[in-house]
Design goal:
Order of helices and strands of chain B: HEHEEHEHEHH
Protein name (chain A): 4Fe-4S dicluster domain-containing protein
Pfam family, one (chain A): Fer4
Number of strands of chain A: 8
Helix content of chain B: 25-40%
Strand order of the largest sheet of chain A: 1-4
Largest interface: A-B, 17 and 18 residues
CATH class of chain B: Alpha Beta
Order of helices and strands of chain A: HHEHEEHEHEHHEEHE
Shape of chain B: globular
Number of domains of chain A: 2
Family (chain B): Belongs to the complex I 20 kDa subunit family.
Number of helices of chain A: 8
InterPro entries (chain A): 4Fe4S_Fe-S-bd, 4Fe4S_Fe_S_CS, PSI_iron-sulfur_center
CATH architecture of the largest domain in chain A: 2-Layer Sandwich
Number of domains of chain B: 1
Keywords (chain A): 4Fe-4S, Iron, Iron-sulfur, Metal-binding
Distance between the termini of chain A: 76 Å
Oligomer: heterodimer
CATH topology of the largest domain in chain A: Alpha-Beta Plaits
Shape of chain A: elongated
Chain lengths: ~200, ~150
């Protein structure tokens, strides 16, 4: 009986009743280290497109020409907030959370290039890839309709009845060759390698 | 009329019933919606209740890019929800298709093609606080003075 009275008294205290009806956990704040959408730091963008190249989400980032300078723009409906663009940018144009601090501390960066691969079983040697490639056309304007070329500087050319890739490092990753290949024999792969800089370089 | 409306407004602001439907995603956003129920975020302190039943729902959380099997079923679920109702797209998938918006996939985003969407919460996945904020900010816009707006 005494305990019952004790409980009734305890629960009739105005302070207890007030707390019972107005209880609320503290409003949640986003932590400072949260990797939000990349924001511009104000540094100058050189238009190297490293961010667009490394972005894994389709249509998430675009480097736009605004008057006289380049500026990356992030699209929230597409961006997955992985932060790879922040890490890949050599100029530090973008920032998100503490990625820049961490990469600066660990002296890590990315090296990336494009790898071209032709499946000889699917390729029918039409030369569409060599002809459509914008880099090829710039290097050798006289590139023949069959994809043969006299120049040794082109990315790829038809040589002895098959596609030979000469200068993979000149590829800009536009994938025009992939689109123009009737058999989807040529594939452009994006290669990325994590690099640990030496102390002197950093 | 206005007193009744005031009572309705007060009740509705503390009683938002939520159903969520995953129309084909990686389940990451489902986990974030479930995280809202956990004590850390505690969605029920704001008067939001997750029932997963369209017949008693006010808010439909749509997650995922739409797969062919969901095209007609999503419309069915939307029709079953009584008025006033609102749909919120959670995550990138219902907005753009996210990583599924590639050649060779069967999904057909955005979800606005199938049901009217009132709010979008971008993110892959969005934070639970972002989901909470979206529900809390879109619900009063739809439910406040709903009957008076109908007249």
């Amino acid at each position: 009986m005494r305990s019952f009275i004790y409980y009734v008294r305890e629960f009739l205290r105005p302070e207890w009743i007030r707390k019972f009806f107005s209880v609320k956990t503290a409003p949640l704040e986003t932590p400072t280290y949260f990797k939000d959408y990349p924001a511009l730091t104000g540094k100058e963008c050189t238009g190297c497109f490293s961010c667009m190249m490394i972005c894994p989400a389709p249509g998430a980032i675009a480097v736009l020409r605004k008057k006289d300078e380049w500026e990356p723009e992030v699209y929230p409906g597409h961006c997955i907030r992985c932060g790879l663009c922040v890490e890949a940018c050599p100029e530090g144009v973008l920032s998100s959370g503490r990625i820049l601090d961490l990469t600066g501390h660990d002296r890590t960066t990315f090296a990336s290039w494009y790898h071209l691969e032709v499946d000889d079983n699917l390729c029918m040697r039409c030369g569409n890839c060599c002809v459509s490639c914008p880099v090829n056309r710039q290097i050798d304007p006289q590139l023949a309709g069959t994809g043969t070329s006299a120049s040794d500087e082109v990315i790829m050319r038809i040589e002895g009845g098959r596609v030979r890739i000469l200068h993979e490092e000149k590829c800009t990753g536009c994938k025009t060759c992939e689109e123009n290949c009737p058999n989807r024999a040529i594939r452009v792969a994006r290669m990325v390698e994590g690099v640990h800089l030496e102390e002197a370089e950093a | 009329m206005s007193i009744l409306q005031d009572i309705k407004n007060a009740v509705r602001s503390r009683s938002i019933h939520v159903a969520y439907v995953d129309v084909g995603s990686c389940n990451g956003c489902d986990i974030e919606v479930l995280a809202c129920l956990a004590p850390r975020y505690d969605i029920e302190q704001y008067g939001i209740y997750v029932h997963n039943n369209p017949r008693e729902a006010d808010v439909l959380l749509v997650i995922g890019s739409v797969t062919p099997q969901w095209v007609d079923k999503l419309r069915d679920i939307w029709d079953k929800i009584p008025e006033p109702k609102v749909a919120v797209a959670i995550g990138n998938c219902p907005i753009s298709g996210c990583v599924y918006a590639r050649r060779g996939t069967l999904t057909s985003p955005p979800v606005e093609k199938y049901i009217p969407i009132a709010a979008q919460v971008p993110g892959c996945p969005p934070r639970p606080t972002e989901i909470l904020n979206a529900i809390l900010s879109v619900a009063p816009l739809i439910y406040k003075d709903y009957e008076e707006k109908q007249l």
